[in-house]
Amino acid sequence: MSALVAVLTLPLVAALGVFVVPARLRVPMALASAAMITGAALALCVTVARGGPVMLMAGGWAPPIGIALRADGLAAALIIMTALVMGAVTCAAWFEASPARAGPRMAFGFWPLMLLLWGALNAVYLSRDLFNLYVGLELISLAAVALAALSGTAQAFAAALRYMIFALAGSLLYLAGVVLAYAAHGTLDIGLLTARTPAQGDALALGLMTAGLLAKTALFPFHVWLPPAHASAPAPASALLSALVPKASFLILMRLWFEAMPDLATPAALLALAVPGAAAVLWGGVLALVQKRLKLIIAYSTVAQLGYMFLVFPLAGGGGAAQPWAAGAWTGAVFHALSHGLAKAAMFLAAGIYIAAVGSDRLGDLRGLARALPMTGFAFALAAITLMGLPPSGGFTAKYLLMTSAFAAGQWPWALLLAGGGLLAAGYFYRPMVALFARDARVPLLRSIPRAWQSVPLVLAVLSIMLGLLSATPFDLLQVGRPPPASEGL
Amino acid sequence: MTLALDLALCVLILGVALASVAGGGVFRAVIFFITYGLFVAMAWARLGALDVALAEAAIGAGLTGVLLLAALGRLRRMNATSPPHRTGLHLPAAFAGAALACALGWAWFALPAPSPPDLGPVMPQSGVGNRVTAVLLNFRAWDTLLESIVLLAALLGVWMLAQDKDWTAPLGPRYHAQAGGVLASFGRLLPPVGLAFGVYLVWAGADSTGGAFQGGTVLAAVGLVALMSNVMRPPRVSQGVLRAALVLGPAVFLCAGLLATASGGAFLSLSPALAKPVILTIEVALTISIAVTLALLVIGASGDGEYAP
Predict the structure, then answer these.
(1) Cβ-proximal residues to A392 (8 Å cutoff; 6+ apart), any chain
(2) Are the beta carbons of A56 and B163 separated by less than 8 Å?
(3) Of A220, B21, B187, B198, which is most buried with the most CB atoms under 10 A?
């Protein structure tokens, strides 16, 4: 069995497994399968890095009749980031989603939902078929909505319902676009669409698909569902929702604009994608500054950080000839997605530890906690460094790539935005850090937190820094099977 | 004559849809929505898409209708008041909907007639005669496999709405049927007929209209009638057999796909000689899972209170 098939099917098999087995076998099975899937993801990465993109025709049928799946560098990088985050979340949930702590409902539901989400994410990363991507998105959305509702409070239900309405509206718009593309070209395959003869309805099809995906990626002004949903879920679920779920719909956007229909990228269209991104960076940052709860600060930071990724559309290929490397902005945006995933998951898991320790995530209640839980405080600080884009983190590499592209292309306003967004991030993470590292306060802990649990967010935060220190390997991986418009620009 | 019929159908669909969304209370909206599903099913039938017509009638009008009516009944028992009318939100939604309809309408006139890929040459290798079944279970089996898992995710989502204290309680509301009443008689009369029809739909699906989704929906309806008339006890999440029935279809599907990989073929590939028996096996397993999942989706999470029809 190839690594590609394993990455696709193992999470689904494991999800069905943990759903069926008796309660005592559930957690061991989830841990074992997480280890196996991570191994398969590593194997796939090595294969892709050494031998180039891996193709799979599902059912042995080539498009346009069948569905093609392809692991290129972009897909492999997201698969390994997902595996690292999922692995960490599995370990954290081992402590946090135990029946004694979380109640029987969450102790049952978390594991199959997490594994279903994992399977759906991998399926979306790999798929080359627009309708298959729709099915994958549906599975992601349903699992994510259920994860958002997991804590069982009225607030969580309301947030999950709002999330579902946005997600379903996004799905419908995306599906309408897919139907139009199929009607015009008789194929759903991204590779075949690249070589299509342009038709009249293409702009409408791409516009509808993009609108649907923007709602799912929570780009400003479609972000209103995100902060309440991410903040009211249990911490391991928040980590998945914030770190991974928006990346899947963003990946499809990149596939559509850079691979399926790059010919439709007019300057006006690119600006229309980047301006909401810029607004998200500023608005999300400002709202994160005024929140009083740690999880809401982290959630609004996600709104802001997602905005940066959309700068790839005007910046891709910006002055490529003037740079010592090709595809600076494209690679930068993906680096941002990867480092944000690792750092944001670390932050939410750290918040989960604080909530377990003191029963609240109000900034006032967290004062001085870094003294009692030093590993978690260190993890939070490292993750914040990545999200602010300070060296030597992965976030810094991402912003450096984006910023040099902006200067090389003479589009300096975007560089200003990158700098301003970084300052905002420094501002909104300053407040929780001041509270955590306060010297005067001494908080009694409700329960002791095992060191193994404390080390989980630390590992993720260290990984997000390593992504910057050892950026050469992921950089090379991303160049495998990179679409031409990534280096030449849209 | 046929043109007149089509035009009348179009007018009816638009009128019923408008009546469903334009004010006038929730009950009216639900009833018009069910009618709308039936008219859309007729439209699919007129377009020659009989499989879609069956699915739309069974799921779009039938099960969704039951679900909405049950939700309405629950709202009434809770004495929930309908939220105040907020035109501020309705107008933008109406404009967005109208704009989308215009854009799609424009595309219908602007685009050439679709030219789907020619399945003629590959149909003999698919193992079945019905093109829809061939696409669903062979050519695009990966889609169908994921869709069968989407159903499971939806059910898990519904279960997560339960309260922790009710987790071990039987699923769904408690139904009361008068002994010897209409519902109780229906509960004994309908299931055998429905069972036969559902099984027929699955069996026929290989070569003509029908299939796992349509057959599963009919069987789910049978289960619902049996549950509502107290002929069958409501199940609990803790029952291993129940959970096994829910994953049977996707599990068999995944196993078939992985066995193909193990024997040297592509993932989910079917050799033409074995295609028909394998597809039938997968369809039977899928039907069982779909039927149980849909029925459980309609009755909802555990501890949903009392329900007297």
Answers:
(1) A465, A468, A469
(2) no
(3) B198
Residues from chain B contacting residue A200 (CB–CB below 8 Å) = 110-111
Interface of B with A in 154-173 (CB under 8 A): 154, 156-157, 159-164, 167-168
**A325 secondary structure, DSSP code:** S
Q: Measured between alpha carbons, how far is residue A303 from residues A141, A165, A309, A431 in Å?
A: 18, 18, 11, 18
User: Given an 8 Å threshold on Cβ–Cβ distance, is A13 in contact with B254?
Assistant: yes
Alpha carbon distance A211, B56 (integer Å): 27
Return the residue matching tokens 């501002």. Answer: A427
Q: Which residues pair with A68 in a beta bridge?
A: A57
Closest partner CB to B143 (pick from A12, A119, A131): A131
The neighbouring-strand residues paired with A70 are A55
The enclosing H or E element of B306 equals strand B302-307
The answer, for B107 touching chain A at a CB cutoff of 8 Å, is yes
Residue B172 region by backbone torsions, left for phi larger than 0, else alpha for psi between -120 and 50, else beta: left
A324-348: burial string, b at 16+ Cβ within 10 Å, e else: eeebbbbbbbbbbbbbbbbbbbbbb
Closest CA to A328 of A422, A259, A398: A398
Give A139-166 pLDDT, tens digit per residue. Answer: 999 999 999 999 989 999 999 999 999 9
CA distance A206 to chain B (A): 13
Count Cβ atoms within 10 A of the Cβ of residue B306 and give its class: 0-12 exposed, 13-18 middle, 19 or more buried.
exposed
What residues contact A36, with CB distance under 8 A and at least 6 apart? A6, A10, A14
User: How many interchain CB pairs under 8 A, A with B?
Assistant: 168
β-bridge pairing A54-58 and B302-307: unpaired
Cis peptide before B84 (omega within 30 of 0): no
Name the token pair of A375.
């590993």
**A395 token code pair:** 């976030």
| Torsion angle defined by CA atoms of residues B143, B149, B154 and B156, in that order, rounded to the nearest 10 degrees | -160
Question: Which residues make beta-bridge pairs with A57?
Answer: A68
CB B249 within 8 A of CB A19: no
A285 Cβ under 8 Å from any chain B Cβ: no
Q: What is the pLDDT along chain B (309 residues), one digit of tens a residue?
A: 689 999 999 999 999 999 998 867 888 999 999 999 999 999 999 998 888 898 898 888 888 998 899 888 888 887 777 666 666 677 888 898 899 999 999 988 888 887 888 888 999 998 888 888 899 999 999 999 999 999 999 999 999 998 888 888 899 888 877 777 888 888 888 899 999 999 898 888 777 777 888 889 889 999 998 998 888 888 999 999 999 999 999 999 999 999 999 988 899 999 888 999 999 999 999 999 999 999 999 988 887 555 444
B266 → closest Cβ in A60, A108, A138? A60
State the DSSP H helix or E strand holding residue B302, giving kind and residue range, or none if neither.
Answer: strand B302-307
Q: By three-state DSSP, how is residue A478 classified? A: helix
In chain B, what residues touch A171 (CB-CB under 8 Å)? none
Q: Is A279 exposed, middle or buried (0-12, 13-18, 19+ CB in 10 A)?
A: middle
Does A143 contact B at CB distance below 8 Å? yes
